[in-house]
Write a structure and sequence with these properties.
single chain, about 0% strand
Length: about 60
């Protein structure tokens, strides 16, 4: 999986982000520990989750 940047995440819809998060999780689980693919998937999940957090309803 290619790294999903914060900029790219910001340009996607919420539904797309949930789909990408699922893909990133699966890529993370399948990649060898410590590999570049593993690191990219983890950073992608962080970027996607950060973007989703900015869209969460404020209390």
């Amino acid at each position: 999986m290619k790294l999903v940047s914060r900029f790219e995440a910001a340009s996607r819809s919420t539904a797309e982000l949930h789909g990408l998060l699922s893909e990133a999780f699966n890529a993370f689980a399948a990649a060898p520990r410590g590999s570049q693919q593993h690191r990219d998937a983890l950073q992608s999940m962080r970027n996607i989750e950060a973007e989703l957090a900015t869209r969460a309803p404020k209390l």
